[in-house]
Design brief:
UDP-N-acetylmuramoyl-L-alanine:D-glutamate ligase; 11 helices; binds adenosine-5'-triphosphate; binds 2-(4-methyl-thiazol-5-yl)-ethanol; binds magnesium ion; Hyethyz_kinase; hydroxyethylthiazole kinase activity; ATP-binding; Ribokinase-like; magnesium ion binding
């Protein structure tokens, strides 16, 4: 795969068509998710009232459901939006934040998984927990206590059981459909020190899959690498997490063909 050229083609398509991404995401992440989508050229909308979902959902090109600050009133809207997307054949992406933190959260994630997300993106601990539908006793809340390489087998098994493409983020982001595994090698460790970078890349995946619905595996890898590359460029100017957050958004907005073509690194994983 000419990965740099493919990633640039998808970024250009996002910039040209500005897909409307319906986001039901956590309260911590809303600002970064919306700004990351805008910087990439997509159009975010945070709409989570059950009253609005039937009217609004059909207008969106893709949906993100993120359970980070899950509360009971939100769950029916998440389910309704996911079911509407699945029925209409529109891509939708699940972010199972802290899936193993409580029985309520795990049950909610498993129920959403049954509504056939196109992509599931989580950190390693979330993917390991979801794959075995179990609580992890040493889980650290929303942050991962595992490395992405340790979650590859769990990701493959979750992809096979759910039918979704599964992406596990980390030093290398691994993306699998259960058979193939590809690694997106861009990014910097400081990205973990900014809350909701994972949520933001989940939303970016939705935008990329919206413009390339027949190549979910590759589109997901391209979104992860593009976001990681924005982190690398941002890190060249940053002094710490707060300025990285700003420079990452600026870098995502300013990405050009030469940089993307030469620096995006997506490799097939054996
Ligand atoms: N060690 C690392 N090196 C390079 N990039 C990293 C590293 N760890 C995480 N990233 C990148 O940071 C972003 C967020 O990944 P992370 O695994 O921290 O998500 P998360 O735990 O779901 O985050 P959050 O819940 O705060 O949204 C991804 O784009 C990922 O590629
Ligand atoms: C810190 C935090 N708590 C619930 S969601 C969230 C944002 C990162 O997932
Ligand atoms: Mg997360």
């Amino acid at each position: 795969m000419e990965c740099g050229a493919a990633a640039w083609a998808l970024l250009e398509r996002v910039r040209r068509s500005a897909p409307l991404v319906h986001c039901i995401t956590n309260l911590v992440s809303m600002d970064l998710v919306a700004n990351a989508l805008l910087a990439a050229g997509a159009s975010p909308a945070m709409v989570h009232s059950l009253r609005e979902v039937p009217e609004f959902a059909p207008r969106a090109a893709a949906l993100v459901v993120n359970v980070g600050t899950l509360s009971e009133p939100w769950l029916p809207a998440m389910r309704a939006a996911a079911a509407a997307a699945a029925d209409a054949g529109r891509p939708w992406v699940l972010d199972p934040v802290a899936a193993s933190a409580s029985e309520f959260r795990m049950d909610a994630c498993l129920g959403l998984l049954a509504l056939r997300p196109t992509v599931v993106r989580g950190n390693p601990s979330e993917i390991i927990a979801l794959a075995s539908a179990s609580r992890i006793r040493d889980a650290k809340g929303v942050d991962s206590s595992h490395e992405s390489i340790d979650a590859v087998e769990a990701a493959k098994s979750l992809a096979l059981s759910s039918g979704a493409v599964v992406a596990v983020s980390g030093a290398v982001d691994f993306i699998t459909d259960g058979q193939n595994v590809i690694g997106a090698h861009n990014g910097v460790p400081m990205m973990r020190k900014i809350t909701a970078t994972g949520c933001a890349v989940t939303a970016l995946i939705a935008a990329f899959v919206a413009v390339d619905p027949t190549n979910t595996l590759e589109a997901t890898a391209c979104a992860l690498s593009i976001f990681g590359l924005a982190g690398e460029l941002g890190m060249e100017m940053a002094k710490g997490p707060a300025s990285l957050r700003m420079h990452l958004i600026d870098s995502l907005y300013g990405l050009d063909e030469k940089t993307v073509a030469s620096r995006v690194k997506i490799l097939r994983h054996s």
